Amino acid sequence: MSCRNVGGDQRGIALLGAMVIVLILSVLATTLLNLSGQEAISASAAGQLAVAQQLADASADLVVGWFHDPQLTSTVPAIVSLRAKRNHDADGAPSFFDATGRSQFVGTMEHPDLRLQAETDSDDRLLNDPDIGMFRAMQHLGRVEELKVYAPTDPGLLCTVDTTVVTKTTPSVRQSVRMQLRALGLPALKAAVQVRRHLGQSHPGGESPVTLHWGDLKVGGDLVLKQATDLPRKSDIAPVTGQGYGEIGQREDRWMEAWVGGDIQLTRPPAQPITDVPANLHIGQNPIPGVRFDEWPYEHLKRMAKRFGRYFAIDREGFLYPQGIIEPGRGVSPDEVFKFQTPGDQQGLVFIDTLDQTAPRADNLGVLKLQAPYFEGTMVVQGHVVLAPNGSGSSIRVLSPPKTDQGNDPIRMPIELSGMHFNGVLYASGHITVAGGVRLYGAVMAGETIASSDSGSSLEVWYDHDLGQGLFRGLPVVYRAPGTWMARY
């Protein structure tokens, strides 16, 4: 009798244990189902939040684009005013900052310099219209509710961009992102050609090889010419064409001024002393008032090239090393680096460092031989340059500097320049030697001088007016300042 009771107790205990296990498993299953559902909801919410954040980021980045492509917003007065440089720096060049370094953007979050709100019909069309809206490419993701631009919070920065968007996800998500912009800070080039020392040598055949159109000449020392008529005279009725002076048969230009620190020397002086000095020739400028050159600091340019451009070291044989890493036998010739290009193949900022990658001195300057038939970009060489293109150049479409029409409105004429070998900026901390007939659109700067390899070599320069506004193709006008991005909600 007691044995049967013991067996029944054991079966009861086993049944109870099985029920407890089933209960535990049920609880675990329910918990797992709940967790899975919560994870699915969390994943969905995270995905929607990511879409909202990307949309807000993209809208802020499009604001950056307004500074780089004026044609996109040329019909919107508020945005035209936004990107216009309304101040001038200490040298008188257009700037986003005043002489004390204060940004032209002075608004607050409540009273910004620019505010566009989708609740206003005209602003909504400008922002989100599927056909003409500035953010129409993002309409499948959502819409922009508000966009504000106002003063920066950090000294030295340009402005704050604040965007609020709402996604088309279900449910929709609102996201607001704030970031600050920094201006590039590359000084404008206010002259077509700048030479810090003498330009030309005082003997027949050693005269200045440079002729200019559309911009100024700045020479720190003496200017040597064959005869006074080699310098273009300034005339308001001079033809504005893409032809060189040898093609049109006269030397007149609407914009050219020559500022010479020393004197003018002639290797073929006339029988009588010069009495008719051109009004656009200004000699004896040094020491008072002085010839003011645009400064491009070495370290500043170097940092800029490493971030936004291409950086090379150079050896004594003229071979280049990307990223400044010199490994014997691994150098690349300039011909390989700057091989044939076509107009529009923009190289941006290219920086060639000194032999020891320190600030330029008389004993650490390399020699770059640039033979590419056509180059487009901003070439900064901390050394000497031999400019010897081996082709006939390319034709490019450009705009002349502004001129005033009968209605007193400044206009820029579209011009085709043919046979151009260089489109952009050529900077050398040493001297530039010209081999052959070279044509350049943009600007040239030489820390020493510009000379010709023989009496038949010449450099003819057409000035790019945009460089005087601080606009360098292939380089950002403004960019997102690191460490300033913040999601508000």
Q: What would you report as the Rg, rounded to the nearest angstrom?
A: 33 Å
Total strand segments: 32
Strand percentage lies at: 25-35%
Major beta sheet, specifics?
A: 12 strands, mixed
Shape: elongated
Spans of 5+ residues with little confidence (pLDDT < 50)? Answer: 39-45
Number of helices: 6
Tally of individual domains: 2
**Percentage of residues in helical conformation:** 10-25%
Structural class: alpha/beta
The average pLDDT score comes to: 86
Distance between the ends: 76 Å
Structural descriptors:
single chain; 489 residues; alpha/beta; 2 domains; twelve-stranded mixed β-sheet; 6 helices; 32 strands; 20% helix
Description of the molecule:
- There is one protein chain.
- The chain has two domains: 45-184 and 478-487, no CATH class; 193-469, no CATH class.
- Helix content is 20%, strand content 29%.
- It is built from six helices and 32 strands.
- The protein has helices at 2-66, 77-83, 121-128, 245-248, 298-308, 334-337, and strands spanning 87-88, 94-95, 114-117, 142-150, 159-167, 174-183, 193-195, 210-213, 217-219, 223-225, 233-234, 252-253, 258-260, 264-266, 281-282, 310-314, 320-322, 349-352, 366-370, 375-381, 383-387, 394-399, 403-404, 410-411, 414-420, 422-428, 432-434, 437-446, 450-452, 458-463, 478-480, 486-487.
- The strands form eight sheets. Strands 7, 8, 9, 13, 15, 16, 17, 18, 20, 26, 28 and 30 form a twelve-stranded mixed β-sheet that branches. Strands 3, 4, 5, 6, 31 and 32 form a six-stranded antiparallel β-sheet that branches.
